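Final report, Chapter 2: Outcomes

The project's central promise was a pipeline that accepts a single protein chain and returns its three-dimensional structure in a standardized token representation, suitable for archiving and comparison. That pipeline is now operational. To close this chapter, we reproduce one record exactly as it appears in the project archive, with the input sequence first and the structure output second.
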Amino acid sequence: MKARAKPILKYTALNDRLFRYVCACGAGRRDGVLAALRAETTALGDIAEMQIGPDQGAFLTILTAAIGARAAIEVGTFTGYSSICIARGLPPGGRLLCLDASREWTDIARRYWARAKVDGKIELRLGPALGNLQKLEAGLRFDLAFIDAHKPEYDDYYELILPRMRANGIILFDNMLWGGRLGRQGLIRHPNGRAIDRLNRKLARDKRVESVLLSIGDGVRMCRVVER
């Protein structure tokens, strides 16, 4: 009797060497503004891990342009790397609304928006993200959303943003693999891990979107809003 073949799990595990290769070959041309921003953010210390990777940045720019986005929203701006990448994918006249609670970090972002010449496309609103989302103007709609803020509030951000997305718009969530700690047996005790795991499972069943969990960076969940 022929033994049952094991399913083929087709993926490539990254290490430092391969990740550097990915960034060198797949993250676009050398960019002095983004390189300087990455260096300044790294100098902040451990908090710099909140910044997305160069591969994620290139992905954001290409995706924003590919879907023809004209209006975008970012929840969690930090020092501005992802917002620059999104803004660069927007056409002339396109708008990016950034929500963040930290003036200290976004003051850095503002400097680099000006250096990247995208400051004219970006509006920053400071304060708690949930409050700012609840106060958005009636009729405001988005083609693309990037969510990278307080993990236990991810689902709340999603439910507030989804009704404002156009059909075929894209919602992206960062850190959806939670440092590679998901998928194990046993109870997830940390509130961030629990929130991310619950949302991953919810999005897999949610008929309002089609979604895929991509192993870019720390995991990017990409959702396409279906027509309603």
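Archive annotation: The longest helix spans residues 191-205.
This record, like all others produced under the grant, will remain available to the consortium after the project formally closes.
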